[in-house]
Amino acid sequence: MSATPVFTLPDRRADSAVRLHPLLAGRWSPRGFDASYELTDAELTALLEAARWAPSAANAQPWRFLVGRRGAATFDAIVELLMPGNQAWAPRASLLMVAVADTTEAPTAPWAVYDTGQAVAHLSVQAEELGLAVHQMGGFDAAGVSERFGLAAELKPIAAVAVGRLDPAADLPEPFFERERAPRERRPVSELLIAS
Amino acid sequence: MSATPVFTLPDRRADSAVRLHPLLAGRWSPRGFDASYELTDAELTALLEAARWAPSAANAQPWRFLVGRRGAATFDAIVELLMPGNQAWAPRASLLMVAVADTTEAPTAPWAVYDTGQAVAHLSVQAEELGLAVHQMGGFDAAGVSERFGLAAELKPIAAVAVGRLDPAADLPEPFFERERAPRERRPVSELLIAS
Q: Are B128 and B164 in contact (CB under 8 A)?
């Protein structure tokens, strides 16, 4: 351990070759949420409006959401459906959601999952603007979500989403305390280009 | 036709219940790109860096891109693979891309398409910050892209992406001229909520 006090975090901004907008450069996926922070109605509305106005194939808007604020039954139900590793930190969030792709509309169904990703990305940018952070999770029981919430087969639960205010002093259990402080890494841009 | 001169566009900002960040509220998907505008190297780098730093399941970063600036062979190849309706306007863009999801990594493959959507959304936000606009298209020949660029079966072409500078005076053929001026519409937030 270094001499760094536990209540600070290293600079986690994106290390990009050129300047990125601060809402993109500053965004990361923390686990140390402030377990006392309660999301306001205006914040929740802004998050959902950001998702609402995302683009989609033929404007089909296939994104749907299960949404629960801490203390609500939907929040508790989502916690129960998370993988144990995520249950160790996600209950600190102010809001838990499950992003669901509606594949009912046949012509645009091939883009339902892709566009749901876009909607949650827009929600994440708006969260950053509100001083909130988002951590998405693949580690949840999708079949269990469908059963618990009675989802039709065309409604595909894709990602659990935690939203809250970062608490740099959060006393996370390992391995999460160290992971919260680990360097952020990405492939170089050159690896992303198939042809250019 | 109204008396509105053709070189203006109506206000197309998102009509949201609460304030959204201007980069989200102001974003839309035009077809009237400035056919003379050339993207700078710094702009292209910023777009790709924005995609690069998007979140993904287990940080797998499954997004890959075919990228061509107007005048390049890749640009022309993408134009040829667009549906005819898109060929009518997309060649005006400064940049054409195809967003490809790499489904090679088995544990995170279920999120490859979703996360590729997130990466393109981040790219779109950065484009807006640079005064550029993005218009994504499902209308392209995905199998043709795979064949033309020799993509392995695990590489799934998902969306064609046009990037450029908006030209409000662009003389688009119908139905695109009217569509560029049509009101923007979204489902109400209430329709997005399965449970809350």
A: no
Q: Which of A21, A74, A110 sits opposite B126 (nearest CB)?
A: A21
> What is the C-alpha separation between A176 and B46, in angstroms, rounded?
31
Helix (H) or strand (E) holding A43: helix A41-52
**How confident is residue A1, by pLDDT bands cut at 50, 70 and 90?**
very low
Q: Do the chains contact at B14 and A74, CB–CB below 8 Å?
A: no
Per-residue pLDDT tens digits for B69-101? 999 999 999 999 999 999 999 999 999 999 999
β-pairing, B155-164 with B133-137? antiparallel
Separation in Å, CA of A27 to nearest CA in chain B: 9
Map out the domains of chain A as residue ranges: 37-164
Q: Do B138 and A111 touch (CB under 8 A)?
A: yes
Superfamily classification of domain A37-164: NADH Oxidase (3.40.109.10)
Architecture of domain B22-180: 3-Layer(aba) Sandwich (3.40)
Q: Is the dihedral of CA A118, A139, A175, A96 positive or negative?
A: positive
Contact assignment for A14 to B49 by CB distance below 8 Å: yes
Which tokens is B14 given? 């998102």
CA–CA dist A105, A109 (Å, integer): 6
Out of B126, B192, B196, closest to residue A52 by CB? B192
- pTM, 2 dp: 0.96
C-alpha distances (whole Å) from B9 to each of B166, B173, B177, B181, B182 are 10, 16, 10, 6, 10
pLDDT band (50, 70, 90) for residue A11: confident
Residue A36 tokens, joined? 């006392």
Beta-strand relationship, A193-195 and A133-137? unpaired
Provide the ipTM: 0.95
Residues of chain A contacting B115 with CB distance shorter than 8 Å: 117
What is the dihedral sign for C-alpha A37, B18, B191, B158?
negative
Q: Which of A26-30, A179-183, B53-57 has the lowest mean pLDDT?
A: A179-183
Taking CA atoms, what residue in B is nearest to A48? B189
Which one of A20, A39, A86 makes the best mutation probe of the B interface by having the most chain B beta carbons within 10 Å? A20
Alpha helices in A93-165 (DSSP H): 112-129, 142-148
